[in-house]
Amino acid sequence: MPATSPSPTPDASFIQVEKFNYAYGDHQVIFDVDLDLHRQDITALIGPSGCGKSTLLRAINRINDLVDIARVVSGHIRIDGVDIYSPEVDVISLRRNIGMVFQKYNPFPRSIFENAVYGLRVAGVKDKQELEEAAERSLKLSALWDEVKDRLHEPATGLSGGQQQRLCIARAVALQPRILLMDEPCAALDPIATARIEDLIAQLRGQFTFVIVTHNMEQAKRIADKTAFFYKGKLVEYDDTMEIFGNPKLKLTEQYVTGRLV
Ligand SMILES: Nc1ncnc2c1ncn2[C@@H]1O[C@H](COP(=O)(O)OP(=O)(O)OP(=O)(O)O)[C@@H](O)[C@H]1O
Question: Which residue range or ranges hold the ABC transporter domain (predicted)?
């Protein structure tokens, strides 16, 4: 099954996945994926359940290293030219440069403020003014400031689901990462909270390089510059989102985006 992809541009290789093969134990789940993600683009990863989208996403910040049996079989992921699986790479600082937001919003059982500054605390920042400024900046970036500025020291768990997810985005952007990975960020939210997160992603466009796993085709159409369609661990087609949904090159892509493939 040949993969099609847009011709490379000079800035095409910010996140460069090359001949990437990945397995859990003996069970290979990603096969020979080549994918160049563009700096500051919003890229959606789509495909049926189990096709390896989350695994690829979690390989980009090496959070999957935490799974004992997970391993790179062969190939590379480069970020800004650096092979992130090379032994010299400091995984902690790699992850610090890559924010991650999960399907199930997961604020810590602490105050809104402490969630917003969590990454800075871990990084050793102690200065009160610096922490306050960072909290305000990241809560403004995540479009939550106006709703929480008068209750910063109340528990994060008192917020609505959508607010908790925006707090998780605030926590992720506080360290000013270059990349934001999102694994079905709206899957647990109602349509109104979903729309707010999509608006937020649109507002943040250009400030981060987004990679977003979504099952929601309409969402991919609304927010993504580029879309990559995966099937059974292989990249089938990668192109401008309008092309993937309006003019897919391959039959398999067309079947998936028109709901005829599950
Ligand atoms: N921690 C793990 N241990 C073993 N196998 C895993 C693990 N995580 C995922 N897998 C397997 O890897 C394959 C790809 O799963 P992955 O979650 O990456 O797919 P996905 O496309 O994101 O699916 P979904 O849309 O359902 O989240 C599946 O066969 C899955 O069972």
Answer: 15-257
